[in-house]
Each structure stands twice: as C-alpha cells, then as structure tokens.
C-alpha cells in the first residue's frame, strides 16, 4: 500500500500536479486548528509588542486601526479558503501562487512566508526572554537586578537560543504533542488578557486608573488619523497583530476534512482574535491614556513592551500572571509558528524548488524534521545578529514583519483572483469570494507594502536605527527580498525542472472540480 501511494505521488509530481508529502493525515480537528491558529497569532505577545508602536502612529484611533487591519485580513482569509478548497497543500502561498502565476512568482511568495515567519520567530523569542526575567524578578520580590538581565546581550541571546531549542524539539514531534501543549498555553493567556481588561475598567470606575480616558466613538474613526503615512504605518502594524491565522491552512494535509476545515478554522480564528483585541485595546487606552509619561501608551520608553509596564498598575499583586501569560504566549507561538515555514520548506523541497533534503519527513513523527531544524537555525542566527545591530530589535522586526506579511498575503490574494478567473461570474458567490473580496484585500495590502517601503527609507522610521543613512526597517525589508531573489536565481540554475513547470505546473480547473 505504501509503495502504491509513493508511486502515485511520484507520478503527480512528475506531471506538475499536487501530491502528498507523507505528513500525518487527519491528526488535527477544527478546534485544534483554531487553537493552533490563535496560538500562532499569540494575542498576549502580539499586543504587548504592537500596542505602543501603533499608538505612536495613530494615538486614540487605535481601535479604528485595529478594525481597519481586520478587514483586509478577513478578505484575504476568504480567498485562502477558496484556494484551499481547490488545492489543499502544505505549501499554501508557494503552491497556489505557482499554480496561478508560474514558478518565479510562486517561489517569491513562498520566500515571503518563510522570511516573515523567521522574523517573527526571532521576535517571539526576544519577548519571551524579557518576560522570563520579569517573571523571575516578580517571584523573587521585584528584583531590578534579575529583570535587568534581559538587557545583557550575551544573557539575552543565550536565553533566546535555549527557548528556540525547546520550541524546535516540540515542533519536531507529532501534531498531537503540539495540540496538547497549545490547549493549556492558549487557554491561560486568554483568561489573563480578559482579566486584565476587566481590572483596567474596575480601576477606571474606582478612579484609580493612571490616566482615565473616557471611551469615545471618535476612537473608531480612521479619518481622524493625522496623515495617510501615519494611517499606513498604523495599519501595517495592525495587520501584524492578526498575522498567523494562515497556519491553519499549512496544516491542511494533516487536518480532518482538508478541503473545508482549514478555511473554516482560519475565519473563526480571525474573528475570535478581533473581538479580544478590541476589548483589551479599549481597556488599555481607557486605563493608561496615550500620554508620553509614566505608563501612558505614548511614552517611548514603554512602547516596545507595554504589558511590562502596565501589569503592575492594572493587576497589582497579580502582575506576575501577565508576565507568565506573555511568556506562555510567546513560548506557545514560538512553537506553533514553526509549523508554517517548516511545511512551506517541505513543499518547496518536495516540488524541486529547494534541495531535496527539505522534503524529508520524520519516519517516526511524520513531521518535516529537516525543514523544522533549518527554520530554527536561521531564526536563531537572525535574532543574534539583530540583537547586536539594534537595541530596539523588537520594534524594528515587528515593522519589517508587517512589510513581509503585506507582500506574501497580497500575492496570495491576487493568486486567488487569477486562479479562478474563468469562474468569476458563474454564480453570485463566486463573484464575491473568488474575485471581489480577495481583490480588495490584495489591493489594500499592496498599497500598504509600497507606502511602508517608501516611508521606511527615513532613518526616523520605526525605532530610529539606521544603516548608511537609510532606516533599518527599509534595509531589513529590501535585504530579505533581495536575498530571496538571489537564492531563487541560484536554484533556477541548479534545479531547472521546477522553474520549467515540470514539477508544479500552472493550472486553472473548472470551479467545483478541485484537483485530487
């Protein structure tokens, strides 16, 4: 039976069709997929890293920007769902863009996903380090010396590498292990975030909030943002906080009901996270305000990690719970985020776009072992370098990540539009879900990518770090894309079959007749 399956996959691969890769089929259900999706987004980690920079750009319009970021994410998620129905494949953006536009654009879409996840893996580990030492300091009587250990570059990097090692070991194991770990970590962080929001409002009612700011409908008005550049920068950061839901699609070959469950899980994940974000964001702004002193969200000294500053004033003796929540959020997402790049690398190796070593699947755990380890090594190296280049590594990598997200999400949205071009107007549903929704989402993300790319050339953009007079965010973004182009050109010479469309070809099946 195994020989028959392998022979069938080899035939499909040789003729340019979709084929299985040896992953553990049917090991993830709808609830498990949603939990892993929320874990990958990592609400506690994401908010502590993004609230401050977003407030710095848009002020009180924070809720409006969150809603604005939610819209393109939802539209793109709907496009992803349609593509997954037609072509459930662990390569997601890489596979779909290749089948819609050809191998060159498909390769860069895959690279964008891999680059984004490597950037965020390093960021996740960095946040985990900060809150690990904060938690220890709170446990041992708020010792400033212990909390300050996170600022020591050698200790910081060493601890970060240890976290990455642990996360890699868990990710290397089967998906059942991943799910069991995530249920506990995700559940705990959600309870603490809701508790934080409730306590913030209690302080407001009692008059003990730091800077009580009455909730206003104007907070939801995106036109109140001072400039389009500020709006675009805030929106790019807002999109970052929703990023990660597409992990549910990369698990499609391991999910029960591979054509429907991943798309449904992605939509549910985005909606659940949106409701949580609005609640916590409104609570934080109402409690602390957007002033530039103390724990005001406009204070540059706390913007890189706001829960580090807000936990004590809002939660009092229970502040350590927030530290544990962000630490568990970072650790959970660090582990679950390995799912996406590992499976994309697996698909790229499987279809001949990368060396065949990336196509190796662990015979014991049925996971992409080699690709998982490769992702960990690159993420560890990236963080180590960035930690010594920029003191504000978290802020700069978050902004760079926003650019990478816009790049590959936008390409995938356009891939949905083009792939289904022959069926746009077959039904009203087709017109919206395969044409209008993904097209609007793709256009929004493309505009954001271009705007951020231009604005980030200014050395004052992001944390203010620069290289040769150019903003570090711009340098990082361009370097990542150019490295991808160089590797792609090298692979086209070494592995020409993929780039000739022999291992994964263009296709546009009739709607309702998905490929097997």
From TrEMBL:
Keyword Nucleus set for record: no
Localization per Swiss-Prot or TrEMBL: Cell membrane
GO cellular component: plasma membrane
Domain of life of the native organism: Bacteria
InterPro entries associated with the record: AA/rel_permease1, APC_superfamily
Keyword match Transmembrane: yes
UniProt membrane topology term: Multi-pass membrane protein
Subcellular location, principal: membrane
Keyword list, A-Z: Cell membrane, Membrane, Transmembrane, Transmembrane helix
GO molecular function: transmembrane transporter activity
Ranges that cross the membrane: 28-48, 60-80, 101-134, 154-172, 184-205, 225-245, 265-287, 307-327, 365-386, 398-420, 432-455, 467-490
PANTHER family: AMINO ACID TRANSPORTER-RELATED, MEMBRANE PROTEIN
Name the UniProt record assigns to this protein: APC family permease
Lineage, opening ranks: Bacteria, Bacillati, Actinomycetota, Actinomycetes, Micrococcales
